[in-house]
Each structure stands twice: as C-alpha cells, then as structure tokens.
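Blackboard transcription, Thursday session:
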Amino acid sequence: MKADRHYSPSETALWLNTMTASLLELTHGEQPVMLGVKTGGVTVAKHLYSAMELATPPGELNISFYRDDFSRIGVHPQVGPSHIPFPVDEQTIILVDDVMYSGRTVRAAMNEIFDYGRPNRILLAVLVERSGRELPIRPDVTGRKLDLDANQNIKLSEDFSLEIKQR
Amino acid sequence: MSRPIFNPQLTPLGDLRHLLGIEGLGRPILEEILSTAETLVDSSNGTTRKVPLLRGKTVANLFFENSTRTRTTFELAAKRLSADVLNINVAASATSKGETLLDTLRNLQAMQCDMFVVRHSASGAAHFIAQHVEPHISVINAGDGQHAHPTQALLDMYAIRKFKGDLSQLKVVIIGDLLHSRVARSQIHALNILGVGELVTVGPKTLLPEHFRELGARVEHNLDPALANADVIITLRLQRERMKSASLPGQDEYFQCYGLTQRRLQLASPDAIVMHPGPTNRGVEIEASVADGPQSIILDQVRCGIAVRMAVMSITMGNVERALHENKQ
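(Written on the board underneath:)
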C-alpha cells in the first residue's frame, strides 16, 4: 500500500514553475489562450496564465455533457456553464487540469472545446499525472508524476497545497 | 425527525425519477433543474446547445390532448439532447379504436421507449402511467387535467429568475381562472418552494375559490389594488368553454374586471414583467398592446421552455440509469 502524503504550496510552486517554463518554450512565438477544466483545472490555469503573462484571461470548461459515465452517475452539472471569453477558431489552446488520471476528462473537455470551434492545436498541461491511464491521451506538460493506488484521492486546495489520502 | 412521505416521483435515493407535479419536491431538486437549464444555454448567443446526453434513448410524446407549443418544445428539447423522438397523437390513433391506455403503453415499451412525455385531459393520468411503466422508463407530465403542468411552472420560474433575480424579493400576482388552471397550481407550488416574497392570486369568486389560500397564496377579487408594487404579473388563459357555463357573465365584462390593460400595468412596479403561459386570448385576459409591449416576456418564456425541458429530461433519465446501475451491482 502506498503512503498518504502532503505537498506544501512551496513544493507545488516548483512544479508550476517547471510547467510555466515548458509551456513558454512549446508556444514560443505564439499567443496561446488557456482553458481550465472546472473546477480544479481553473485554479491551475489562473496561476499559469499570470505566470506566463498571457494577454487573455483563461476560460472555464464544464465537461458534464460529454462525460462517458452518464449511465452510472447521471447528470450533475453543478459547476455552472462553460465560459469561453474568446473565439476558439484557429487558436493554440492550452488545456489545463489539476489531475490527469484515466484521460476521460480530457476527452470530454476536447469535445466541449470543439462545440465552440476548430482550434489550430491543443496542448495539455496537468499539475499531476497519476498512473492509471485508460485512453491514448498524454499530457504535453506535467508538473509531477505520481504513482498511486486506486483507492487514493488527490485533493488540490486553493493555496496549491496537495493532499493524498485513502478514500 | 419525521420520515419523508413516499413520493412516486423519486427513486429510493430521493432523486427525481419522474416529473409528475411540483408538489412534494424539495427546493434542491427545483434548484438543480434550474441550474442545469442554465448550463444548457450557450451564453454567447442565448440558444440551447446540442449535447449527446440522451444519445441512444427514445422519447415518446404521448399527447392525449392537443397542444402545439408544449409538444414542439418537448420535441426540440429531446432532439437537442440527441434522443430519438416519437410523436404519438393518441387522440387519432389506437385509443380511438378501443385500445386501452395500458395496452398502448405496453406496445410503446415493446418498442424500447425510454421516456414518456404525457399530456392528458384527466387529472392523475401521468401518475397512473408512472405506476405501470417498467423500471427503466421515466414519465414526464406535460399537463394533466386541472392538476399539474410542472415543466410550464419550472420554465416560468427560470424566466422570472432570469429577468428579475432573487425570488424572495419579488411580489408575484397571478390573474384569471385559477380554479381550472393546472399551470397556476404548479406555479403556486413552485413559487412557494423557491421562497417567493409575496404571492397574490386574483380572479372572480367563481374561478378563484377561497381555499386557494391553503395552497399558500393570498386570494383577492379586485385587480387594481392587488397590482400595487407587483414585480411579476402572470395572466392565465381564459378557456372559452367557461364563458358558456355559469362561471362568467361574458367576455367583455371579464376583460373590464380582470383584463390586463396598459392602464392597469401602470399600477404595478415600473419594471414589472408580464407573463402568460399561452395561448393568449387578446382582448379577453390581456390587451394586445400589453402582450406585445416591452414589459412582456411571453416569447422568452417559450424560449426558456426548451432549456428547462432538456434539464428535466436529462436529470430524470440520468437518475433512472444510475438507479438501474446501482441495482445491478
């Protein structure tokens, strides 16, 4: 059994710095826009947006309508609608989430994005990539890889401290 | 703590499975429907989005009573959720050949329908159907007799919140034939559950009995004073058949006493909104210039109807699926 852990804001700040540097390099010469997956991804996106000094504030994605587990959990879009304050067409989009696990959220997020237009490309940035991928989707930029048991939960707080606990 | 009363609309977990009426539903359920409806509207242009939530599902519109607006918005709502839709005009089909309601239902179940949207002239018809359907089917009441029209009431709540905000700060006045109105009954329940500030009903004594007080509304028979400081004015359709009965002296006299005119509208708050569930009888319950005027949101109500019906359909179908999934495990 893998141990529970706590990462302090100063530890996660290092991961965020790495992510910022990689994203600046990957989008060099471009003016990318950013979309955070509600709700954890929005917190990370806001941080990366100011660290990268992007021109446009990040948008917010609600992925409820494209989740593939409707038959198990029903519809629970309690996080409010997507808010994309810029045209998606022909943009370089940085899609941001706090944790990537199976890859299903990312698939749903891409469906949601394509409802709004056809971007030139999408880059995926996640603060934590945990083991257990179920789809052929990988992040372009990762803050930290973590190998966790299936019954462990990751919780990111607003102050960027990260808690790993048994469910 | 008292045990909750059995409610045929809810799953054992307390989630909405059928929508048969507003009465007995908790505020969180109504709020969930309204906030889900909000997420289904594209904020950039105000249209409802097309989403795949009910892909592979079949929705049967069972209309035992005619209705164009309600049936069409339910059909659009189901299509925007990517469901397949069957429109069955039951009045003109098998029931007129003597088939019983239950036989019609069994046939539709055999066709693998997942949801019945039911409009019927008899109060309680949707409840009856809900009691007899298989566990994978959800039933939505699209109006039953004089009992309930829950999706109309919900879309009205959605429209009121959209145009006027917090219900607890509002005075709502409902005018007309409340006695025969399923819309009004559902509206009164919904407004009270959502905590409306003040609720006044106005109509002639023959069409607004004193016992409406028990539903949680003030009962008035004189329109002009009741309109003072009103933020929301809901006019109800006066059904022509009432004129033939002894309930009313005549159309002109009704308009004089209870018609919403420009002059009367000025008695309300200057930014009051005017609503009507349709179809309107111009010159009977509402003056044409008021129905078409800047304070009227009658067409916005129709627009809100699609998003609200999408929300109801996706929530109920999702809860049915979830209950089945948990039973399997």
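Lecturer's comment: The longest strand of chain B covers residues 138-144.
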